Amino acid sequence: MTPNPFLGVCFHWLGGLASGSFYVPYRGVRKWSWETYWLVGGCVSWIIMPWLLAAFMTRDLLGVLHQQSIGTLGWTYFFGAMWGLGGLTFGLTMRYLGMSLGMGVALGYCAAFGTLVPPIAKSFFSSIPVASSFGDILGSTAGLITLTGVGVCLAGILVAALAGLNKEREMPEAEKRKTIAEFNFKKGILVATFSGIMSACFAFALTAGNPIGEASLAAGTNKIWTGLPKLVVVLLGGFTTNFIWCVILNVRNRTGYQYLGRTARPEHAGLNAAGGSAGGAAAADPDLRVPRCTNYLFSALAGATWYMQFFFYTMGETQMGKFGFSSWTLHMASIIIFSTLWGWFLREWKGSSGRTHRLIAAGIGILIFSTLVVGYGNYLKVSGGG
Q1: Hey, which of 142, 187, 241, 313 would disulfide with 386, CB 3.0 to 4.6 Å?
Q2: From the CB of residue 226, how many other CB atoms can be counted at a distance below 10 Å?
Q3: Are 291 and 273 contacting, i.e. CB atoms less than 8 angstroms apart?
Q4: Taking the CB of residue 87, how many other CB atoms lie within 10 A of it?
Q5: Euclidean distance between CA atoms 80 and 125, whole angstroms
Q6: pLDDT tens for residues 205-255?
Q7: Is the CB of residue 380 less than 8 Å from the CB of residue 142?
Q8: Residue 119 CA to chain centroid, in angstroms?
Q9: Residue 361 has what pLDDT?
Q10: CA nearest 327: which of 197, 215, 207, 194?
Q11: How far apart are CA 62 and CA 196, in angstroms?
């Protein structure tokens, strides 16, 4: 099957839509702590969905995994676990820098490292399972256009982060203290750097798992689905990290009872997934009954939606040809585009100045343009025109 980069861009947009939307169902969770609903959703996204879809849509899943070397499985799992650490520290970035600035900085690092490190590493170590080294990319017109698209994407992330910083500066002082009471620029940048680099390990994990995809293709799987068996191993690594931390929090916060409990303890009665304690009247709500079925349903829906970002990511990656490294840039850009649009829909930007609105609109426009530039660079490579 000949790769179709523009179809790949569409798949990456769908993945960004899923990633930017997955947290919305969590807003319906009540009287559960973060660690409880996060682990329930995680079991769906990291274990159930990867195995279910890979088993149904690929050939001989167990046989493909069984024939892999310890090195391939080990590195794929290891980088998946490191990505899990990035996700856990992402919350600290929000705490120290605020939501908008923190997301822009962390995703900027994540986009840069996740996109550029694999082909750079290929330049020094020929055994790295990437189609093109950095030298190959620099030596062609198509490669230079693709790199330009990556640069445009990073510029768009910077503009979006600047819009977020403006938004936070324009917030009333009381509201600012409520949302970023622990603002610390130096500490926030250090945590964002760690989070961004660790989160980029997902791209490294998919690279390390390329032999799994090749084995699945050899087993008769349609090429567009060959990334699914890789996700089984990568997400198992992410599950391990998140499971350990959530259980630690369950024990520390005495919230382990929530998985089966019909009623909440008084100190947990005001919890909701939209923002921790609901505060005010909700916190004093005498009704301690926990809507368990609804909580499980919303958490499972959030987990399934989260998984779909990488379901579409692996589909898009198969369409990008030799410059598959650019898939990570497209993924990051799409996440910011759709998460920002959700913020607009949920009126999170209400009260911001016209300048801030113009900045965020410009950031989204630049990001959309960057995906088209990356797609065009990949198209030139596939068509032999560059």
Answers
A1: 142
A2: 26
A3: no
A4: 18
A5: 21
A6: 888 898 999 999 999 999 889 999 999 999 999 999 999 999 999 999 999
A7: yes
A8: 21
A9: 83
A10: 207
A11: 33
The answer to whether residues 381 and 142 touch, using CB atoms and an 8 Å cutoff, is: yes
Distance CA 94, CA 20 (A): 16
Contact at 8 Å (CB) between 335 and 14? no
Domain that holds residue 42: 5-383
Spatial distance between the Cα atoms of 25 and 108, rounded to a whole number of angstroms: 26
Nearest alpha-carbon partner for 164 in 101, 243, 251? 101
Helix axes 201-208, 99-124, angle to 10 degrees: 30
Q: What is the full DSSP assignment across 51-97?
A: HHHHHHHSS-HHHHHHTS-HHHHHHHHHHHHHHHHHHHHHHHHHHHH
Tell me the one-letter amino acid at 212. Answer: I
Q: Is the dihedral of CA 38, 340, 333, 172 positive or negative?
A: negative
Q: Which residues contact 331 (CB under 8 A, 6 or more apart)?
A: 12, 15, 16, 19, 309, 313, 316
Would you say 340 and 156 are in contact if contact means Cβ atoms under 8 Å apart? no
CB 119 within 8 A of CB 207: no
Q: What sign has the CA pseudo-torsion 221, 62, 302, 351?
A: negative
Token pair for 52: 């279910």
Token representation of residue 378: 């990949």
Q: What does the chain come to in residues?
A: 386
Closest CA to 323 of 192, 199, 147, 166: 147
pLDDT tens-digit series, residues 326-359 = 777 777 778 777 777 776 776 666 777 888 888 8
Cα 121–chain centre separation: 23
Q: The tokens of 333 are what?
A: 């850009």
State the pLDDT at residue 254.
92
Q: Among the residues of 171-285, which ranges form H helices?
A: 173-179, 185-199, 201-208, 210-218, 228-253, 280-283
Whose structure tokens read 């189609």?
131
Q: What spatial distance separates the first Cα and last Cα of the chain, rounded to whole Å? A: 20
Tokens at 297, concatenated: 């349903």
Percent of the residues in the chain that have a pLDDT greater than 70, as a whole number: 76
Nearest one of 346, 349, 345 to 358, comparing CA atoms? 349
Token match 């002082």: residue? 173
What value does the mean pLDDT take over residues 191-205? 82
Q: Tell me how many domains the chain contains.
A: 1
Instruction: Give the position of tokens 């705490």.
Output: 95
